[in-house]
Write a structure and sequence with these properties.
The complex is a heterodimer. Chain A is α/β, with parallel strands linked by helices. Chain A folds into two domains: 7-185, 3-Layer(aba) Sandwich (Rossmann fold), CATH 3.40.50.300; 190-282. Chain A has helices at 7-16, 23-35, 49-60, 75-78, 84-92, 109-115, 131-143, 174-178, 190-200, 206-219, 230-242, 250-256, 264-272, 275-286, and strands at residues 39-43, 64-68, 80-82, 105-107, 120-124, 145-148, 152-155, 161-166, 181-185. In chain A, strands 2-5-8-1-9 form a five-stranded parallel β-sheet, with helices on both faces. In chain A, α1 (7-16) packs across α3 (49-60) and α10 crosses α14 (275-286). The longest helix of chain A has 14 residues, at 206-219. Chain B has three domains: 4-152, no CATH class; 190-231, no CATH class; 234-405, von Willebrand factor, type A domain (Rossmann fold). A six-stranded mixed β-sheet of chain B has the order 6-5-4-7-8-9. A three-stranded antiparallel β-sheet of chain B has the order 1-3-2. Chain B is of the alpha/beta class. The chains are: A alpha/beta, B alpha/beta. At the A-B interface, α2, α5, α8 and β9 of A face α2, α3, β1 and α8 of B.
């Protein structure tokens, strides 16, 4: 379990990895580490849920183990499997070692996290896995142990820092939520978004970054189907920078808006609502 | 003078109680977790305590506004019983799938329980505990507490003032029969989960080798796996507006059957706005479900805005994948007071997300016959299947329709539908 002395130390550590947190997220991550509880992070796509785990591992200087969830994920993908080809060869070669022992065990992320103390374990998009897998996770998350029938119970005294993300395509089970600390990440406000963009894109001209962020902030208040996240802000700023612009103008915005808005309805809506108006207002807000 | 850690414990417990009184589901573990969290923090710092409490007690973003209200009172050491949470709820971020979209059902706020004595260290039980009148009538049948969610709702609007909301035994049998039919008829989809098969499917190396270990490494028989099949999700979006009133009983029965079928289902109803009924329906006591459903909906028999309701669905739920791969069933007579262009656009979005779009018109009107309601005429081009009549026959035909969907790829015509504008 990575250790940070204080909330400030944690914020600075993450900032060192170019991940800026607000006070709320910093406090909650700090608590999750101290209390050795998994942290369930939810939020709109693109608010940096997955990045949090990466930054945390980098800041603490520990390995990140990532388990990407999908429908049908099972124990063999998440916890362990047996190395059957090696067992077979062993048998054919007349070996006498027990076949179902550590030697032939293939560790998947969850088991690996128990075997290697002090890692960060990211369980990404848990809402994509099915109920069966979620139920299986309960034992792991509450006791940091898994049971392998042939070997026995594997547990650890130094549990990993667990970060679980969900996009809320379905509601996670109450029993699982109970075992976690919960945090909902909002889209950042203007000042923070500018700070994030400047940290992430140090080469992009500042006026451009400010205006792009102000523009996106306004978009988030329109009733869009798919609200652009920080990831899209960065993409757009990068696109404009690559085209050699140091501000947003109507013509360029028209052509590059696809980096920001990913559905036809949203594009049409923003165009119909007056792109020039949005640009003018974002220019004011940025100044 | 009590010891400081007792103060903290008492405070944590009273916050938990205050949240429960507000209708947020909290547990004793959450209180314990919060106590432990306070031990790691500077308890004089409001923001640290706030975030610790939020991380410990909160479970979903819809609860943030209500939580903030309670925490605010908690921190000020005032009586945390909530004066008007609902107003605060309404002010939450409009982009959230919150109650203003009729999204997540609101927590049921009860104002009778009181907790106080926050940071002064006295256990909260010692303080005034006033059981409000009617507190024990909250079983769904007594006079309703008209606060919060229920304020907008008058049961008299629906089915006559005295009508008992109970199923007749015959109706109940029909509900159960329909549920049974639906379960049997539900179309299947391929799951990503593999299962062992005897003949068909691709070789399963893992199990083949595993088996051969028993025979000294000779693979005598090839093990195979194939994707298993799961029932598709049923998504029902049902109109309960004024024009549908005479069908409401039958509709509720049908919704009940869908929810009780044991399939994965999502149920929404709308008149002027959308309400999610998933979780309200489908319990084991059908009578209670009926009451609960009636109580959860604010606008029974209101005007119809189908387009708006579908826009709400697409924006708050569809976007999160609730319709993906599902059989979407819209139940409405198509009498729409909204903009037909909006209806067309939102239907197209829904159609693009779901596997099949079924429209059930409870009025027995054929698709070809005139006059069809404007909304119905607008909707027809987007609909994969159109059924009319919601009586026993109509519902049986839904069962037959679903049963027929399994065969082969979707028989959805490739004709382009209008762009919807």
């Amino acid at each position: 379990m990575p250790r940070f002395e204080s909330i400030e130390a944690l914020s600075e550590g993450l900032a060192g990895e170019r991940y800026l947190v607000d006070e709320g997220l910093a406090t909650v991550v700090f608590l999750a580490l101290r209390l050795r509880k998994p942290l369930l992070v939810e939020g709109e796509p693109g608010v940096g849920k997955t990045e949090l785990a990466k930054a945390l591992a980098a800041a603490a200087g520990v390995p990140l183990l990532r388990l990407q969830c999908y429908e049908g994920i099972d124990v063999h993908h998440a916890v362990y499997d047996w190395d059957y080809p090696r067992q077979l060869l062993h048998l054919r070669a007349g070996g006498t070692e027990p076949l179902f022992s550590e030697q032939f065990l293939v560790r998947r992320p969850l088991l690996e996290a128990l075997a290697r103390p002090g890692t960060v374990l990211l369980i990404d998009e848990l809402d994509r896995a099915d109920d069966e897998f979620e139920a299986f996770l309960l034992e792991f998350l509450s006791d940091f142990q898994v049971t392998i029938p042939e070997v026995g119970v594997v547990r650890t005294d130094e549990p990993p820092a667990v970060i679980i993300t969900s996009n809320r395509t379905r509601e996670l089970h109450e029993a699982l939520k109970r075992r976690c600390l919960y945090h909902w990440i909002e889209h950042p406000d203007l000042a923070r978004e500018i700070a994030i963009a400047r940290t992430r894109l140090p080469a992009a001209p500042e006026p451009l970054v400010r205006q792009v962020c102000a523009f996106v902030q306004q978009l988030r208040w329109l009733d869009l189907h798919r609200v652009p996240g920080v990831g899209e802000t960065l993409d757009w700023a990068q696109s404009l920078d690559a085209l050699g612009h140091d501000g947003v103008d109507q013509r360029t915005a028209e052509r590059t808006l696809g980096a920001l808005l990913k559905t036809r309805e949203d594009l049409e809506r923003v165009r119909a609502g007056g792109l020039d108006d949005l640009i003018a207002r974002s220019g004011d807000a940025a100044a | 003078m009590p010891r400081p850690e007792h103060l903290v414990t008492a405070a944590a417990v009273s916050l938990g109680r205050a949240l429960r009184d507000t209708g947020l589901r909290t547990t004793v573990d959450a209180e314990l977790g919060f106590c432990r969290a306070l031990g790691e923090l500077d308890v004089r710092e409001r923001s640290q305590v706030y975030w610790a409490a939020r991380a410990s007690f909160l479970r979903r973003p819809e609860e943030i506004a209500a939580f903030d209200g309670v925490f605010d009172r908690f921190w000020r050491g005032l009586d945390p019983a909530v004066a008007d949470i609902r107003a605060e709820h309404g002010e939450s971020d409009p982009r959230m799938p919150g109650p203003q979209h009729g999204g997540e059902s609101l927590p049921e706020f009860r104002a009778e329980g009181r907790s106080s004595a926050l940071l002064d260290g006295r256990p909260s039980r010692a303080t005034r505990e006033i059981p409000a009148a009617g507190a024990d009538e909250d079983d769904g049948r007594g006079p309703r507490d008209r606060r919060g969610v229920l304020a907008a709702y008058s049961p008299d609007e629906i089915m006559g003032p005295r009508e008992e909301l109970r199923y007749e035994p015959a109706e109940l049998a029909a509900v159960r029969r329909l549920a049974e039919e639906l379960r049997a008829a539900a179309p299947l989809r391929r799951s990503r989960r593999l299962r062992a098969t005897r003949r068909a499917g691709r070789p399963d190396v893992r199990r083949t080798v595993q088996r051969s270990l028993r025979t000294d490494g000779e693979a005598l028989r090839l093990a195979r796996v194939a994707p298993s099949r799961k029932p598709r999700r049923l998504l029902v979006i049902c109109d309960v507006s004024g024009s549908m009133e005479r069908y409401s009983r039958a509709l509720l029965a049908a919704l009940e059957a869908v929810a009780g079928s044991g399939l994965k289902t999502e149920t929404f109803v709308f008149a002027t706005r959308l309400t999610r009924l998933t979780g309200v329906l489908g319990g084991h006591d059908e009578g209670r479900c009926l009451e609960a459903a009636r109580a959860a909906v604010h606008d029974w028999s209101g005007g119809t805005r189908i387009g708006h309701a579908l826009a709400d669905f697409n924006g708050s739920w569809g976007r999160r994948g609730f319709a993906r791969g599902a059989i979407a069933i819209v139940v409405s007579d198509g009498w729409d007071r909204g903009d037909p262009r909006l209806l067309a656009r939102e239907l197209e979005r829904l159609r693009l997300q779901c596997r099949r779009l079924v429209w059930i018109n409870p009025r027995p009107v054929d698709a070809g016959s005139q006059p069809l309601a404007v909304g119905m005429r607008t909707a027809l081009p987007y609909v994969d299947d159109y059924l009319a009549g919601v009586d026993a026959d109509g519902m049986a035909s839904l069962g037959r329709l679903l049963a027929g969907m399994d065969a082969g790829p979707p028989a959805r015509s490739q004709r382009p539908v209008g762009s919807g504008r």
